[in-house]
């Protein structure tokens, strides 16, 4: 039942804000939506579209607070970047110091914010990647315990498959998690049945994740170097962050 009271109200307002933000970015990137195959394929391979679709789904179903983690993280960097580039310069215009040297718009605080964003951006993106793995475990267990729909882990698995393909942070998170699980299941104390089940699961996941994704003819697949999220400290926004348009 769709509820707009109490905790669910704030949960859905948060997601509606994310939906509007991503919608604006996508509209600026792609223009008026079309139904031709080339447009749809290009849109579905865009990270902003992927996060928009997932946000719409999370907003509609029974609230799962953990799913807000990536969006809250992106919003923090969005807010800091907007403060540095728009709010502070409007409050503290460029001028001159007492010794005659020019002072930048926004003052020294803009440099502090930029330095903090640059220092913590990769760390935050790694955090988001691990959080998305945890979210998948949550919705998978929730489906097995009938706490959420079976559609949730299926949809999120496809989302993570795209993230694995397009994001170096997500690939690193999955490889690290798999390495840890490999060590646990190879330990002599691990029951053979658990080890066998784990190997079967990994084989299934590997087959699914390695399925070739189709692209438009003449549109190259993103390479590992170009698939990483853009650092906002360099002046461009993250593809997964509705701060700015993609620049890739």
Description:
The protein has helices spanning 6-30, 37-44, 47-60, 69-91, 108-144, 151-166, 168-186, 192-209, 224-227; strands at residues 95-96, 102-103. It is mostly helical. Strand 1 (95-96) and strand 2 form a beta hairpin. The chain has a two-stranded antiparallel sheet with strand order 1-2. The protein has nine helices and two strands, in the order H-H-H-H-E-E-H-H-H-H-H. It starts with 5 loop residues before the first helix and ends in a 21-residue tail after the last helix.
What does the main sheet amount to?
Answer: 2 strands, antiparallel
Structural class: mainly alpha
**N-to-C SSE series?**
HHHHEEHHHHH
Estimated radius of gyration: 21 Å
Mean pLDDT: 83
What's the helix count? 9
As residue ranges, the low-confidence spans are 214-248
Level of helix content?
A: 55-70%
Shape: globular
Number of strands: 2
InterPro entries: PER33/POM33_regulator, TMEM33/Pom33
Keywords: Membrane, Transmembrane, Transmembrane helix
Family: Belongs to the PER33/POM33 family.
Biased composition (Polar residues): 218-237
């Amino acid at each position: 039942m769709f509820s707009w009271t109490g905790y669910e109200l704030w949960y859905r307002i948060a997601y509606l804000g994310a939906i509007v933000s991503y919608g604006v970015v996508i509209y600026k990137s792609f223009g008026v939506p079309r139904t031709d195959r080339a447009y749809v394929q290009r849109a579905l391979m865009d990270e902003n579209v992927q996060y928009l679709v997932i946000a719409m789904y999370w907003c509609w179903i029974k609230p799962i607070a953990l799913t807000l983690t990536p969006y809250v993280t992106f919003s923090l960097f969005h807010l800091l970047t907007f403060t540095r580039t728009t709010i502070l310069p409007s409050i503290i215009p460029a001028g001159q110091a007492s010794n005659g040297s020019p002072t930048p718009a926004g003052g020294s605080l803009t440099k502090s914010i930029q330095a903090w964003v640059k220092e913590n951006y990769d760390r935050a993106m790694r955090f988001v990647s691990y959080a998305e793995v945890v979210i998948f475990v949550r919705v998978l267990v929730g489906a097995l315990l009938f706490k959420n729909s079976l559609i949730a882990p299926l949809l999120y698995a496809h989302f993570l498959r795209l993230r694995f393909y397009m994001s170096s942070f997500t690939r690193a998170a999955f490889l690290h998690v798999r390495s840890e699980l490999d060590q646990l299941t190879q330990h002599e104390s691990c029951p053979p049945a658990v080890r066998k089940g784990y190997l079967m699961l990994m084989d299934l996941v590997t087959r699914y994740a390695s399925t070739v994704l189709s692209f438009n003819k003449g549109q190259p697949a993103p390479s590992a170097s170009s698939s990483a999220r853009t650092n906002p400290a360099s002046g461009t926004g993250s593809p997964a962050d509705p701060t700015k348009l993609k620049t890739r």
